[in-house]
Amino acid sequence: MPLIHDQPLDTFNTFRIPARARHYLRVDGAEQLAAVRADPALAALPRLVLGGGSNLLFTRDVEGLVLHMTGQGREVLGEEAGKILVRAQAGENWHAFVRFTLEQGIGGLENLSLIPGTVGAAPIQNVGAYGVETKDVFHSLTAYDMASGATRTLDTAACRFGYRDSIFKHPDGANLVVLDVTFALPRAWQPNLRYAELGNAVREAGLTAPTPNAIGLMVEAIRRRKLPDPREIGNAGSFFKNPVVSNAECARLLAQFPTLVHHAQPDGTFKLAAGWLIDQCGWKGRHLGAAGVYHKQALVLVNLGGATGQDVVQLAAAIQADVAARYGVMLEPEPVFI
Ligand SMILES: Cc1cc2nc3c(=O)[nH]c(=O)nc-3n(C[C@H](O)[C@H](O)[C@H](O)COP(=O)(O)OP(=O)(O)OC[C@H]3O[C@@H](n4cnc5c(N)ncnc54)[C@H](O)[C@@H]3O)c2cc1C
């Protein structure tokens, strides 16, 4: 097993935060995971499963074993109940996979274009954008259970998807390593333009009968305008989840802040726009040391060059304190702190 010791992780996280892994292994299938289990010294180490490193913040070196998911491969499996089943290995680049489906005329993933990271990580936080979440297009996945050594198939119910949440973020799913994911994409495709910004862009472009590919390209254009490219400015996308508050809490806030951006949820709660709260506290474009708040989008924290994980943690804490003091709402970080 080609185990590497003292591996730098700077280029394996989109924040470009310096960190090292005491032990590092590239994993392209269950065989390497079984070998780790079979080696008592390796099996005893704390583990970090790593995809594209686009939803992580390294605050220290990893003293255990990094399992870097690199498995490649994707295939159209066929049709089932009006859905086209498409499978990809965990290490496939997410956007390249989306493009693969769109280039074959298969719709369903276009709203999730240009999200960084790997296919295997998409179910972990139920990746979502422009009104679509992974759970909406998900069929099943294969996972290796590091505790039992079994390979398991999990369907939508078993994954327990929620807003930026799934079983994999909870103790009973923490030992599962995703090996491949199968998506169920509609044969009878309809555009999903419920997200106002996307719907408006499609209308303004005069697209009366847009194809999945045309919508995918439009999503890419919108995202390029709004979000920093991690190849140029280190970041992990949205740094905070949009807080969800009760009806009563939302009413209390609206009485005091009538322009509060809020969206009703099907369960009667309200989702607040974390970026708006941060912006209102005056953080957009500001920085603490080498960690800053992106000047075009207050929800994105950026590495202005040479930031450490602790710099970002301090900036995030200062923002959380200001938002809590002004609105009584605690922002919860979206990336995983390591
Ligand atoms: C510019 C930018 C824009 C973004 N936009 C969005 C967006 O619109 N919507 C959105 O939801 N997210 C967005 N993100 C966040 C990020 O792209 C997603 O969370 C993505 O799914 C992370 O994939 P990754 O492979 O980089 O995961 P990593 O960061 O490597 O890992 C994230 C978590 O998943 C776990 N993990 C990774 N792979 C596996 C596996 N195979 N098995 C088990 N556990 C695994 C890791 O242990 C870790 O806990 C954005 C990030 C950036 C930088």
Automatic annotation (TrEMBL):
Coiled coil: none
Catalytic activity entry: UDP-N-acetyl-alpha-D-muramate + NADP(+) = UDP-N-acetyl-3-O-(1-carboxyvinyl)-alpha-D-glucosamine + NADPH + H(+)
UniProt keyword list: Cell cycle, Cell division, Cell shape, Cell wall biogenesis/degradation, Cytoplasm, FAD, Flavoprotein, NADP, Oxidoreductase, Peptidoglycan synthesis
Cellular component GO terms, alphabetical: cytosol
Family matches, as InterPro entries: FAD-bd_PCMH, FAD-bd_PCMH-like_sf, FAD-bd_PCMH_sub1, FAD-bd_PCMH_sub2, MurB, MurB_C, MurB_C_sf, Oxid_FAD_bind_N
GO terms (BP aspect): cell division; cell wall organization; peptidoglycan biosynthetic process; regulation of cell shape
Function: Cell wall formation.
Pathway connected to this protein: Cell wall biogenesis; peptidoglycan biosynthesis
Active site per the UniProt annotation: R164, S238, E334
Species per Swiss-Prot/TrEMBL record: Massilia aurea
This enzyme's EC code(s): 1.3.1.98
Highest taxon listed in the record's lineage: Bacteria
Family, as annotated: Belongs to the MurB family.
GO molecular function, one term: FAD binding
Main location: cytoplasm
SUPFAM superfamilies: FAD-binding/transporter-associated domain-like, Uridine diphospho-N-Acetylenolpyruvylglucosamine reductase, MurB, C-terminal domain
Annotated localization: Cytoplasm
The keyword Flavoprotein is assigned to this record: yes
Tagged with keyword NADP: yes
Protein name: UDP-N-acetylenolpyruvoylglucosamine reductase
